[in-house]
């Protein structure tokens, strides 16, 4: 198996496939788009190149980055030949199990025995997708977020029998493309969707109960904890706020809304042991005292700058 991934085939030249191709081609990876619709791959390639030129004019890309996209982004109608020569094949087709099974089976039949096959599914179990493959150990999930060119986070998702040696070259390639990959387990919703759909369900419940309107909820979320989450994850925010504060808040919420808001056992264990976050020299992230002081100092600067950015964009925003 290649330690470095230089030649990538992308099966599915829709909006997401084109975004993945642009991102990787910009970083120097040769990417070839493939699509079931005749002419679809070349059409998407031309659209990506046009978008890159527009980004250059707007100052969002450099001339060197645009040249890299032009040099490394290709399209083809020869599925078998392109897949056979690829180090890595991305399946980026419609989010339906039987369709993905059909495409993955065809990819594996054409691919080199050493090639890595990755799916961009956002919700389907990687293990379920792997059931049709003869070499499931060469298969994993790599979940890009939409739009792929702009969102830095990517979930890398091995399933139960994935060869874990596949993971480092994938992570290295993504980091070289300017992304922030995280290796997560093959559980329902992975990380992102499990969290964001839990939030959305509670938001809808509040509208149903008449607690607030959708507009009011959006305002509070983006101007409070959503503001923080643009820069820090939930564990960093909790460590800084105080784990005891969180635990006490759950007690109040549980009284009002029942067991769905009970104190999480892992949080209760920490607080009961005296771990209150960075103010007691602990927390989920296990930061040293020096790291904690740096985090708080950088947080205040980051929040100030984010506030300035939001203000500068407000005049042009419809939200």
Characterization of this structure:
- This protein is of the alpha/beta class.
- The chain folds into two domains: 177 residues, 3-Layer(aba) Sandwich (Rossmann fold); 91 residues, N-(1-d-carboxylethyl)-l-norvaline Dehydrogenase, domain 2 (Orthogonal Bundle).
- Strands 3-2-1-4-5-6-7-8 form an eight-stranded mixed beta sheet, with helices on both faces.
- Helix 6 links the parallel strand 5 and strand 6.
- The relative contact order is 0.08.
- The mean pLDDT is 95.
Write a brief caption for the model.
This protein is α/β, with parallel strands linked by helices.
Comma- or semicolon-separated keywords:
319 residues; alpha/beta; Rossmann fold; N-(1-d-carboxylethyl)-l-norvaline Dehydrogenase, domain 2; 2 domains; 8-stranded mixed β-sheet; 14 helices; 8 strands; 52% helix; globular
**CATH level-four homologous superfamily name of the largest domain:** NAD(P)-binding Rossmann-like Domain
Tell me the strand order in the biggest sheet.
3-2-1-4-5-6-7-8
Point out poorly predicted stretches.
none
Q: What is the class of the largest domain in the CATH system?
A: Alpha Beta
Average pLDDT works out at: 95
Rounded to the nearest angstrom, the distance between the terminal CA atoms is 48 Å
The assigned CATH architecture of the largest domain is 3-Layer(aba) Sandwich
Number of strands: 8
Q: How many domains make up the 3D coordinates?
A: 2
- The share of residues in helices is 40-55%
Largest sheet: 8 strands, mixed
Shape: globular
Instruction: Return Rg in Å.
Output: 22 Å
Strand content: 5-15%
Q: DSSP helix count? A: 14
Order of helical and strand elements = EHEHHEHEHEHEEHEHHHHHHH
Q: Helix- and strand-based class? A: alpha/beta
Question: Remind me, CATH topology of the largest domain?
Answer: Rossmann fold
């Amino acid at each position: 198996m290649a330690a470095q991934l230089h030649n990538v085939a992308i099966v599915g030249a829709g909006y997401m496939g084109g975004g993945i191709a642009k991102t990787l081609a910009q970083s120097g990876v040769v990417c070839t788009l493939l699509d079931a619709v005749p002419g679809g791959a070349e059409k998407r390639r031309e659209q990506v190149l046009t978008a890159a030129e527009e980004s250059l004019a707007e100052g969002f890309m450099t001339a060197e980055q645009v040249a890299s996209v032009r040099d490394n982004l290709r399209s083809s109608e020869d599925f078998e030949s392109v897949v056979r020569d690829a180090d890595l094949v991305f399946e980026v087709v419609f989010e339906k199990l039987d369709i993905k099974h059909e495409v993955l089976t065809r990819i594996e039949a054409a691919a080199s025995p050493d090639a890595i096959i990755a799916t961009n599914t956002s919700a389907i179990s990687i293990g379920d997708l792997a059931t049709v493959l003869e070499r499931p150990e060469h298969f994993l999930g790599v979940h890009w977020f939409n739009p792929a060119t702009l969102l830095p986070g990517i979930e890398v998702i091995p399933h139960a029998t994935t060869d874990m040696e596949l993971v480092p070259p994938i992570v290295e390639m993504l980091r070289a493309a300017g992304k922030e990959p995280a290796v997560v387990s093959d559980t329902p919703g992975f990380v992102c969707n499990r969290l964001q759909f839990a939030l959305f369900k509670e938001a809808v419940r509040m509208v149903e109960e008449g607690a607030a309107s959708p507009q009011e909820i959006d305002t509070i979320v983006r101007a409070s904890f959503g503001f923080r989450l643009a820069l820090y994850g939930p564990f960093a925010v909790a460590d800084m706020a105080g784990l005891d504060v969180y635990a006490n808040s759950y007690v109040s919420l549980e009284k009002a809304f029942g067991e769905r808001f009970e104190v999480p056992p892992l949080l209760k264990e920490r607080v009961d042991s005296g771990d209150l976050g960075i103010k007691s020299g602990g927390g989920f992230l296990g930061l040293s005292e020096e790291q904690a002081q740096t985090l708080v100092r950088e947080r205040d600067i980051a929040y100030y700058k984010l506030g300035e950015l939001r203000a500068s964009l407000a005049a042009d925003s419809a939200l």
